[in-house]
Specification:
CATH class of the largest domain in chain A: Alpha Beta
Largest interface: A-B, 63 and 63 residues
Largest sheet of chain A: 7 strands, mixed
Order of helices and strands of chain A: EHHEHEHEEEEEEEHHHEEHEEH
Strand content of chain A: 15-25%
CATH superfamily of the largest domain in chain A: Type I PLP-dependent aspartate aminotransferase-like (Major domain)
Shape of chain A: globular
Number of domains of chain A: 2
Strand order of the largest sheet of chain A: 2-10-9-8-5-3-4
Number of strands of chain A: 14
CATH architecture of the largest domain in chain A: 3-Layer(aba) Sandwich
Radius of gyration of chain A: 21 Å
Distance between the termini of chain A: 25 Å
Oligomer: homodimer
CATH topology of the largest domain in chain A: Aspartate Aminotransferase, domain 2
Helix content of chain A: 25-40%
Chain lengths: ~350, ~350
């Protein structure tokens, strides 16, 4: 049976990427060796790393604009710490839009003063704060552009003189965007980019060097940049598979085209959530994420029935996060619209038959 | 042509492990989904992580002895920092046996006082210091059990009342050993355990909680232990492939049997290095590594000729590190003795024909 994979992350990747990655683990490009047994200092792997970094800059429109791309380890959680280590001298500001922002705030507090500039905690993070003022004395303002758990997404990046830093783990490469508004952004691979195990970090090169503390080597962007993401052995498989996905995005017509497809999938799904009497959306309509749609049953006693309908249709990974309950459909780049249609069918079956 | 892979790391893994890993990227256990697209919170992956941690403790003889195993990210380089963050309150001691020890010392210095208890830097690290005295006021003494670059290996663990910490990246699971002598040891996967991208850390649970500083979440062993290696998304592919290798080690008869095979490979190769007039070993004979054999030509002008002989025979990854020059044959667990025999043949061809 075909599985429709709505997992929040690790999550669906393009079928051809998984096939190519599988083949490379067997043998990389007729080299007689597996991808995972070659030296990271070999010509073959250095080319993989270089191409991955170049494509990341190209797709975000930042090539030749003074930015640097790195593939590191540790996930966004390590970036919560690392961004503060490298950029926080006195005070950083945060827009708190949920679990991940809260974790980022916690790590930054170890290294300096933190100002929570805005928060949507008053409504269990079901909306994106707007019209807040940004103090001018911040070293940077940190945003979470998409909130996987709550299903909200920042549609408009605030205009401010303060440097912007963003966690884009769950919506990078999903929509057209002025990435040059940011001094630094990062994204764990395991949503729209690749398997778990690597994290893309892109930063403006002149944003570094402004803090006075000693930075441990592994947490120092300058050290990692000087070593071209290879200060130590990089996560070879995760970087290679991310490169395959970046090539796939390019073949799809780049992120503008991908963004149009994602909007179509989201419109279809949210349309059904709003129309269907058995369901209600969780996030404020104007802030709804195009990556993670969160919704609940109007009658929670139907959950077992709906779960069964979904299971029969081959739907996987739809359970909502415990902070929200209900359902979460993660509709990342690689999820085909067919899968969304199957989910909509299941929602209609519930409405008609129960 | 069959390739004989002598790479220092990432390095050869068992053929069956690479086949199984490749298959899992296509589809995990007839689940209809790839290993890399399932949730790390799924039953399937939680079982993978649990089995990997259990097997690591079993193979090292530490199960039920108050130890905990974790699979983290960041490589040994991150452990240089993390071990100091968690264990260094006042002063740590280091036996400096080369590049990796030196890097570990550098990171520890950010967090406390460091005493270099012994060093072999006086002879370009070609031996392991012995008969040094260990000050009793150390929080711990850090060793590098095997030195990939210089080809030396600690044969006898010092007896001391001071807690021992070790970087075992390049010889873990390669020989029988009293692992309970250590309070903490760690190993990047990419030599004897799996692909680059995960790091095994094993520690005595009561060794933690003795420092007064605040530890960032990602660098806190207690946080990672409480979350069973899943404080954030783990490097799924690297952990799974490591598990496959741990199963393979078990099927080989465990590390005692593996150690006997490794000794046979090493004896064969060092025997030829000593016998053959064209070569000389780099490391002190009593400290020679069973994992990385370093050797040089007696007549360096023959290097192009020897390289050509090796290339014709399908030998890959033999170039020595720039700190030592010459050659380095990494003969990790998964390297078959046939490959060592092919290398010895090449060495004999050079001696006979040139």
């Amino acid at each position: 049976m075909k599985i429709h994979n709505f997992s929040a992350g690790p999550s669906i990747l393009p079928q051809e990427v998984m096939q190519q990655a599988s083949q490379a683990v067997k043998e990389l490009d007729e080299s007689g060796l597996s991808l995972i047994e070659i030296s990271h200092r070999s010509k073959a792997f250095i080319e993989i790393m270089e191409e991955a970094c170049e494509r990341a800059l190209q797709l975000t429109g930042l090539q030749g604009k003074g930015y640097k791309a790195l593939f590191l380890q540790g996930g966004a959680s390590q970036q919560f710490l690392m961004s503060a280590y490298n950029l926080l001298e006195k005070k950083a500001g945060f827009v708190n839009t949920g679990t991940w922002s809260t974790k980022a705030i916690k790590e930054a507090k170890l290294l300096g003063e933190v100002s929570e500039v805005a928060s949507s905690q008053d409504a269990n993070f079901n909306y994106i704060p707007k019209n807040y003022s940004v103090p001018s004395d911040l070293d940077y303002l940190h945003l979470t552009t998409n909130n996987t758990i709550f299903g909200t997404q920042i549609k408009s990046i605030p205009d401010t003189e303060v440097p912007l830093v963003a966690d884009m783990s769950s919506d990078i490469f999903s929509r057209k965007f002025d990435y040059s508004k940011f001094d630094l952004f990062y994204a764990g691979a395991q949503k729209n980019m690749g398997p778990a195990g690597t994290t893309l970090v892109i930063f403006k090169e002149d944003a570094l060097g402004k803090v006075s503390r000693s930075i441990p080597s592994m947490l120092d962007y300058a050290v990692q940049a000087k070593a071209e993401s290879m200060f130590n052995t990089p996560p070879v498989f995760a970087v290679y598979t991310s490169l395959l996905t970046l090539r796939w995005i390019e073949n799809q017509g780049g992120i503008e085209k991908i963004g149009i497809k994602n909007a179509a999938k989201a419109t279809h799904l949210y349309g059904e959530i709003d129309r269907n009497s058995k369901f209600k959306g969780f996030a404020a309509p104007e802030d709804r994420s195009h990556m993670n749609a969160t919704f609940n049953l109007t009658d929670p006693s139907l959950s077992e029935t709906f779960d069964k309908i979904c299971q029969t249709a081959g739907i996987s990974g739809l359970k909502g996060h415990r902070s929200v309950g209900g359902y979460r459909a993660s509709i990342y780049n690689a999820l085909p619209i067919d899968s969304v249609e199957v989910l909509v069918d299941c929602m209609q079956i519930l409405e008609k038959e129960y």
